[in-house]
Every structure is written in C-alpha cells, then in structure tokens.
Design goal:
By secondary structure, the chain is an alpha/beta fold. The chain folds into 2 domains: about 100 residues, Enolase-like, domain 1, CATH 3.30.390.10; about 260 residues, TIM Barrel (Alpha-Beta Barrel). It has 15 helices and 17 strands. Strands 4, 5, 7, 8, 9, 10, 11, 12, 14 and 15 form a 10-stranded mixed β-sheet that branches. Helix 10 links the parallel strand 9 and strand 10. Helix 5 runs parallel beside helix 7 and helix 8 packs parallel to helix 9. The longest helix has 22 residues. It starts with a strand and ends in an 8-residue tail after the last strand. The structure holds D-mannonic acid and magnesium ion. D-mannonic acid binds next to loops.
Length: about 400
C-alpha cells in the first residue's frame, strides 16, 4: 500500500476545523484533525507546502517511522503548528491501519481496559445560581462529573461562560479581530468558594466537581485557591497557573492536596516531562491534535502511568470529532485513563460535515466496533461552510496589562 494523495480541508460548521485526508493507492483513506484555533491557515501551509510532498509514495503502515521522520528528521522540532500537522497525518495513518486490519484502533493499541469512557460536562452560568441550575440538569441527564464555571460579579465577560449565547459555537465563533476581556484575581476570589460551597450543598457528595482556572493565577495564588477549595474535594483543578516553568508547580503542590490537571495547550511530552516525573500533577490533559497524534499521546500516557498520573484529554469545541474519536480509542485502551472532557456535538452543521460512531448515555461515551477511527468527513458538506478568520479573546488586567489566556 502506498500514500497516493493527501488533501487538506478548512471548513467552518460553527467554527473553523482543519481536516486532513490521507488517500492510498488501494482505495482506503484515513482522516485526521489539524485544527489550531486562531492559527488554522499556518497549519494548512505547513502541511501543503512542507509535509505532504515528502509523504507521497510512502507506506502508510510505517506510522512510527513517518512520525519520527516528521519530528526528528526536521531541524525545527515541536511547536504548535508543526505538531498539529504531524498529529493529523498520524491520526489518518492509524485510521488507515485500522481499516486495513478491519479492526478499531483501540484493538491495535492493546484492546479495551474498560467498557466505556467517563465524561465530564460543563456547567457555565451567568451567576452561581444559573451555573448550579445547569449542573443539576446535567446531573439529571446522568453525568457523574461536572465542571463548574460562573461569571464573576464586577467583570464584563468571564472566560468559559456562555452568557446570552446559546452554545460555544456562538460564543467563540466568528470574529474579525480578537475581542478583549478583563481579569481581576481579587474579584474572582470573592466568588469562587461560594460556587463550590453551594455546589456541594445542592449537588451532593457523590458527583465529581471540577474547575478550570485558565491559568489566570500566579502559582502562590493557585496554592491559595487549592487550599480554599479542599473542603469541596474536586476531582481536579485545571490550569491553575501557567507552567512554562514546570518547577513553579512545586509552589502549588507544597501547599495543597487539591488534584491538579494541565496540558491542553502542550505540543510535546517535553512540556509535561518534569510535571509528570516529579508528580507535580495528577492529570495530564494533552490532546491528540495538539501533542502529535495518537503515537505521541500513547507515549505520554505510558510515561504518565509509571508516575501515578492519569489522563484527562482536552475535549473543547475547537477540537473536531476526529480528535474526539482518537481520544475515545486511547481512553478505552489506556490503563491510566482518568476522565474525558465533553461539550457535546449538538451542532447540526457539525454533524452535517463529520459523522462518528460514538454515543453518550448516562455520562459515559461508548462506540461501535467500526474499523479505524470510526469517523468520516463529508467533503461536499464541508464546502458549504467556508473558513472565516476567527480568534479567541485576549485577556487583560483591569489596568490594561496583557494577561494569561
Ligand atoms: C478550555 C477550552 O475546555 C477547556 O478546558 O480550556 O474550552 C479552551 O477555552 C478552548 O480550547 C480554547 O479554544
Ligand atoms: Mg481548559
């Protein structure tokens, strides 16, 4: 079998997605997700101009060699653009291998370690009351783990909160230039404990609660938050502070037993190596699309497993259902799987473009035994939803200082 062509598609069924299709001379094709929000076209150019010409005529079964060829073989390693491009090729090759073997990808990884994938859903409200109403509705749908986010009184917009928008697609959708949001640590601290205190009172002690700080705090502030939230026993606190300096998590760890999670923006195992090796985190949240595909995620997963770190892959709406499918296969296999983030695939346009074989019931995702990744991409449907330039908001402190996303 040989790779005969590779096509790259950019479409916007609610938000932008970059999808790769690797086609072989035997008619089997594979699909991969290369979406890097706000920098979509950089990945397209990387693929079309620099990567695809090197792959035509190669054996698609040589997944590891192609991965190493694209990673080691290039002077410029890592980086979000490069790794998203490698990731999409890698996912597509696993899809091809599965289809050729007539087996779902998880069987190629080692088979099932569990019957289904536990999900955590998002409850994001315009007030604590609103957040808890949403959380209660999710609990009634059967979700066993819920992330609580609430608007912060005194701030005009709060990250992760939908406001008057009906869903993430509308909230984070098409903007000509980045909007700006304001952050105040002081105002955040005046709200956050109440959210979890009232959350526990209303939702009970059996539900898993989570929270995403989106790196807005410094390590010592994150330590304070961890201590404050200890009585409400979170499953994890996500992105409590930036960890470009991985050792800075020692500050948080020294002060609190709140489980810590990080990694959704990481592009390689090297960004989480010290965090994992020194057991400074409890969950690693790398995504197949951004960390180099299934091959890379499997390596991170195994490395994490020997240091008591579980996986909790990123599942935001800026990852396509192809990435979610890749996660499903890794999650079903991984001995140290923790939990999968899930925001739903309720958007009609999205479902018009991507078809998949997973379903959600009672807070768990399961999938059929379709060969490969079990997802498909409709080129004609995608053509109805052209790319539109779009950005995430930029965060600033109240005095105008640019702040962490
Ligand atoms: C968030 C994301 O899901 C999460 O944990 O951090 O929703 C994040 O805001 C987006 O991926 C950015 O597009
Ligand atoms: Mg997050």
């Amino acid at each position: 079998m040989k790779i005969s062509a590779i096509k790259v598609f950019v479409c916007n069924p609610g938000r932008n997605f970059v999808t790769v299709k690797v086609i072989t001379d035997e008619g089997i094709y594979g699909i991969g997700d290369a979406t890097l929000n706000g920098r979509e076209m950089a990945v397209v150019t990387c693929l079309e101009e620099h990567i695809i010409p090197c792959l035509i005529g190669r054996d698609p079964h040589a997944i590891e060699d192609i991965w190493q060829y694209l990673y080691r073989g290039v002077y410029w390693r890592k980086g979000p653009v490069n790794m998203a491009a490698i990731a999409a090729i890698d996912m597509a090759l696993w899809d091809i291998k599965g289809k050729a073997a007539n087996l779902p990808v998880y069987q190629l990884l080692g088979g099932k370690s569990r019957t289904g994938v536990t999900l955590y859903a998002h409850a994001s409200g315009s007030s604590i009351e609103d957040t808890l109403d949403k959380a209660e509705a999710l609990q009634q749908q059967g979700f066993k783990a819920i992330r609580l986010q609430s608007a912060i009184p005194g701030l005009n917009v709060t990250y992760g909160v939908l406001g008057d928008k009906k869903d993430y697609f509308e909230l984070q959708g098409n903007r000509p230039l980045p909007p700006e949001e304001t952050w105040s640590t002081q105002k955040y601290f005046s709200m956050i404990e109440d959210l979890f205190k009232r959350g526990r009172q209303r939702l009970g002690n059996h539900i898993h609660l989570l929270h995403d700080v989106h790196s807005r705090l410094t390590p010592i502030e994150a330590a304070r938050l961890g201590k404050l939230l200890e009585p409400y026993h979170l499953l994890f606190l996500e992105d409590a502070a930036i960890a470009e300096n991985q050792a800075s998590y020692e500050v948080i760890r020294q002060h609190t037993t709140v489980p810590l999670a990080i990694g959704e923006t990481y592009n390689s195992i090297w960004e989480c190596k010290d965090l994992i090796e020194n057991q400074l985190i409890d969950y690693i949240r790398t995504a197949a699309t951004h960390a180099g595909g299934i091959t890379a995620l499997r390596r991170i997963t195994d490395f994490a497993s020997i240091h008591n770190v579980k996986t909790a892959p990123h599942g935001a709406p800026d990852l396509s259902p192809v990435c979610f499918a890749a996660h499903m296969h890794i999650n079903i296999w991984a001995p140290n799987f923790g939990i999968q983030e899930f925001v739903g695939f309720g958007n009609d346009k999205l479902n018009d473009v991507f078809s998949h074989n997973f379903s959600v019931s009672n807070g768990m995702a399961t999938m059929t035994d379709a060969p490969g990744l079990g997802v498909d991409f409709d080129e004609e449907a995608a053509a109805k939803y052209p790319y539109k330039r779009s950005y995430l908001p930029v965060s600033r402190l109240e005095d105008g200082t640019a702040w962490h996303w």
